[in-house]
């Protein structure tokens, strides 16, 4: 059993933790991307014949989502972003943030130097067994694991004057360029799956990139949409976008990021329900043609 050290003693790694994002957002309860499985042998056979590994009620929401956004298409989404959302600001221009006294897990989507510019500070040692003091924090990297396009660091943090340390997991993704786009949504989906699969979303999670609005906002909205879809809730993309902007100024600042959100969600749906493959592949082809620079 994995254990975590905290003030006052040892506890399990999954105890007393709440999920947060950089902007506080009320998400549906339950694990990230819950997918109801058909019950019984007959129901499972029916689902396989339909090409969907989801329940009938969920499939209705997926049908509607896929039809809506493959019909709107990449150019339709780009136009929607330019005309309705790019300049959107919160009505009162006030944003809510939450402070936590206990350390939490982190998702870092940046490199310290990008395009020759300093974008952030390396605040944990990169190699297992290394330790360093940052200000009033002693930081010891205990383990480093590779998950393809991102690394997982298990880090021990000991504040100055304290006798008990905290164990924090840092998921570090460096393959997403600043103000750019990944070639595929699979890496982002794998990052989200890592969080839910390790049950990290039982507690506070701090996510950041360089400015905390582009890559951060994109991943947050992908996760929210997937949670809603697989919890049989309607998805209003424009309103979800505005809700994030109400909490974090300039969140998701590029039209390419807006289109990429739908690409990633459609890609996940295609994995779960192969019957959507043709429509989703067409969207993905249009996305790459319109938004990924040729090399």
Automatic annotation (TrEMBL):
According to its UniProt record, what is one Pfam family this protein matches? Y_phosphatase
Identify the Gene3D superfamilies for this entry: Protein tyrosine phosphatase superfamily
Domain Tyrosine specific protein phosphatases, residue spans: 186-259
- SUPFAM superfamilies according to UniProt: (Phosphotyrosine protein) phosphatases II
Gene Ontology MF terms: protein tyrosine phosphatase activity
Specify where the region named Disordered lies, as residue ranges.
Answer: 1-44
- Ranges annotated as biased composition (Basic residues): 1-19
Q: Where is the Tyrosine-protein phosphatase domain?
A: 14-268
The UniProt entry, under PANTHER family, shows:
TYROSINE-PROTEIN PHOSPHATASE C15H7.3-RELATED, TYROSINE-PROTEIN PHOSPHATASE DOMAIN-CONTAINING PROTEIN
Return the protein name.
Protein-tyrosine phosphatase
């Amino acid at each position: 059993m994995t254990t975590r050290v905290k003030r006052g003693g040892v506890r399990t790694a999954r105890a007393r933790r709440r999920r947060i994002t950089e902007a506080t957002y009320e998400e549906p309860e339950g694990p990230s991307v819950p997918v109801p499985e058909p019950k019984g042998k007959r129901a499972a056979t029916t689902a396989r014949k339909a090409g969907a590994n989801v329940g009938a009620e969920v499939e209705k929401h997926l049908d509607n989502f896929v039809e809506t956004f493959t019909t709107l298409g990449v150019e339709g989404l780009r136009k929607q972003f330019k005309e309705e959302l790019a300049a959107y600001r919160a009505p009162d221009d006030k944003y809510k943030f939450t402070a936590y006294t206990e350390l939490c897990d982190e998702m870092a989507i940046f490199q310290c130097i990008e395009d020759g510019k300093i974008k952030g500070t390396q605040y944990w040692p990169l190699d297992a067994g290394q330790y360093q003091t940052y200000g009033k924090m002693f930081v010891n990297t205990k383990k480093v694991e590779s998950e393809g396009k991102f690394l997982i660091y298990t880090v021990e943090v000991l504040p100055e004057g304290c006798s008990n340390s905290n164990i924090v997991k840092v998921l570090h993704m460096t393959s997403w360029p600043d103000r750019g786009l990944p070639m595929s949504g699979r890496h982002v989906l794998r990052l989200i799956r890592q969080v839910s699969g390790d049950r990290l979303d039982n507690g506070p999670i701090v996510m950041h990139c360089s400015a905390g609005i582009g890559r951060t906002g994109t991943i947050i909205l992908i996760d929210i949409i997937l949670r809603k879809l697989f919890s049989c809730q309607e998805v209003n993309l424009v309103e979800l976008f505005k809700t994030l902007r109400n909490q974090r100024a300039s969140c998701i600042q590029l039209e390419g990021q807006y289109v990429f959100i739908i690409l990633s969600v459609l890609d996940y749906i295609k994995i779960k329900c192969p019957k959507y493959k043709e429509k989703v592949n067409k969207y993905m082809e249009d996305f790459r043609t319109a938004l990924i620079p040729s090399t």
